[in-house]
Design goal:
Keywords: Biological rhythms, Signal. The structure is a single chain. The protein is α+β, with helices and mostly antiparallel strands. The protein has one domain: Super Roll (Bactericidal permeability-increasing protein, domain 1), CATH 3.15.10.30. Helix content is about 30%, strand content about 40%. Strands 1, 2, 3, 4, 5, 6 and 7 form a 7-stranded antiparallel sheet that branches. Helix 1 packs across helix 2. It is elongated and about 60 Å long. It binds 2-acetamido-2-deoxy-beta-D-glucopyranose (3 copies). The site of one 2-acetamido-2-deoxy-beta-D-glucopyranose (NAG) has 3 residues, from strand 5. One 2-acetamido-2-deoxy-beta-D-glucopyranose binds next to strand 7.
Length: about 250
């Protein structure tokens, strides 16, 4: 999704002819810069949900995530989870609420986007193994998660690098710790073949999802950060920072 945030900023820079007709350019010098960016990002969410193959922007609704790896270890609980072939539906319905950019220090650039999404559905495959104290758990199957009222802030932190005399932004972190209003989860085969135990565990997870969510979020966020950073940096290295944020040099 952040690709689109960045793509939109690019658009606002006149630099991308494919977007020029659709988006109102925003200048970093303009007092209305942040409002202007919110409008563009919102428009991008609706317009580019299917992706833009010519610019290697993938579709994001549904959004396909090939693989995320999570390592969990805390208070006698230890686990490794590989989540594969996930498909998320609903991201294009995001309402963009605010945008902030902090460009004062080229070694610590920060962009933030506040969003609200009414409903997100995620499904895919998983493989997990681990133990609770000494009791081993493990499984391999499919999962799905349904979430209502998802809100939060995407944060991109990065710094400027120079390549062939041209400045580019490189992302150091892509952070996201969304709040969720309601959630229901399903996973098959959590205890390799023990259906009864699976049912009990799912009931428990659904009754106490805020607890699990709070515990697992930092680990999910880490896997997410790694995945997004890689994807984002590929895009960022193809767009000089000056066209991403026009008038940046003049601001310094
Ligand atoms: C912007 O970033 C600078 C340098 O990283 C920091 O010192 C400053 O507090 C930030 N400003 C705001 C408004 O967050
Ligand atoms: C999640 O998957 C299970 C098993 O395939 C299915 O019964 C359930 O309807 C799915 N949940 C949603 C919201 O689609
Ligand atoms: C949360 O979702 C569950 C399962 O779908 C549902 O039974 C419950 O009513 C929902 N709670 C709220 C507050 O919407």
């Amino acid at each position: 999704m952040l690709l689109f945030v960045l793509a939109t900023l690019t658009a606002s820079a006149f630099a991308a002819p494919w977007l020029k007709d659709e988006f109102e350019p925003c200048s970093a010098k303009d007092l209305e810069f942040e409002k202007c960016a919110v409008r563009n990002i919102q428009l991008a969410f609706t317009k580019f949900r299917g992706g833009v193959p010519d610019y290697e922007l993938p579709a994001f609704d549904p959004w396909f995530v090939p693989e995320i790896l999570m390592d969990y270890s805390q208070q006698g609980i230890e686990g490794h989870m590989l989540v594969k072939n996930s498909r998320a539906v609903g991201l294009s319905t995001a309402q963009i609420q605010a945008f902030r950019a902090n460009l004062t220090d080229p070694d610590n650039l920060e962009f933030q986007v506040d969003f609200y999404i009414p409903h997100v559905f995620v499904e895919g495959e998983y493989k997990a193994d681990g133990k609770i104290v000494t009791f081993p758990i493990g499984g391999k199957g499919i999962y799905n998660i349904s979430m209502d009222d998802v809100s939060g802030t995407w944060t991109i932190q990065g710094y400027l690098v120079e390549v062939n005399g041209e400045k580019y932004m490189k992302a150091r972190h892509v952070l996201m710790y969304p709040q969720v209003g309601n959630m229901s989860v399903y996973a098959s085969n959590l205890f390799t073949g023990n259906d009864e135990l699976n049912k009990v565990a799912l009931q428990f997870a659904n009754d106490y999802w805020p607890l699990f969510y709070r515990e697992l979020l930092p680990y999910a966020a880490q896997g997410w950060d790694q995945f997004m950073r890689g994807t984002l940096n590929k895009l960022l290295l193809s767009v000089p920072f000056n066209s991403l944020v026009p008038d940046y040099e003049q601001q310094l």
